[in-house]
UniProtKB/TrEMBL annotation:
InterPro entries: Ub_conjugating_enzyme, UBC, UBQ-conjugating_enzyme/RWD. This is Ubiquitin-conjugating enzyme E2 W-like isoform X1. It comes from Priapulus caudatus. PANTHER family: UBIQUITIN-CONJUGATING ENZYME E2. The gene is LOC106815230. Gene3D superfamilies: Ubiquitin Conjugating Enzyme. Residues 3-150 form the UBC core domain. Pfam families: UQ_con (PF00179).
Amino acid sequence: MDADKKRLQKELMTLQLNPPVGIKVNGDHGSSLTTWYVEMEGATGTLYEGEKFQLLFKFTNRYPFDSPEVVFTGTNIPVHPHVYSNGHICLSILTEDWSPALSVESVCLSIVSMLSSCKEKKRPPDNTFYVKTCSKNPKKTRWWYHDDKV
């Protein structure tokens, strides 16, 4: 088994046997480890409490040196200033701040944290334009993290 597959298999087993609160890996992955669906619940005491979301993770054979493609999918895309209505997530660890030390679990926890810190449910200001013009793969977007430059 290739190193990337071993790493994914280990991460999958860890998430299935000992998932963080509110995180659940969905489905039988069989021989394909390249696509995962992860269910996520909004954290207690936040704007998203009681809501359920689904994340789609797609891995290349360069994982963990290459970040996974991660998007919200399904019928409930969270309304959040860093989540576009097509499910794309503006989060630096999914692109330029990715590190092989990160994992599916740490990505999920970062997304839960991002949602939990939200003070007002609203879409990004450029949502309509972005959704009309973006690539299907959010990793091909050159993100501008304007709220970090205060």
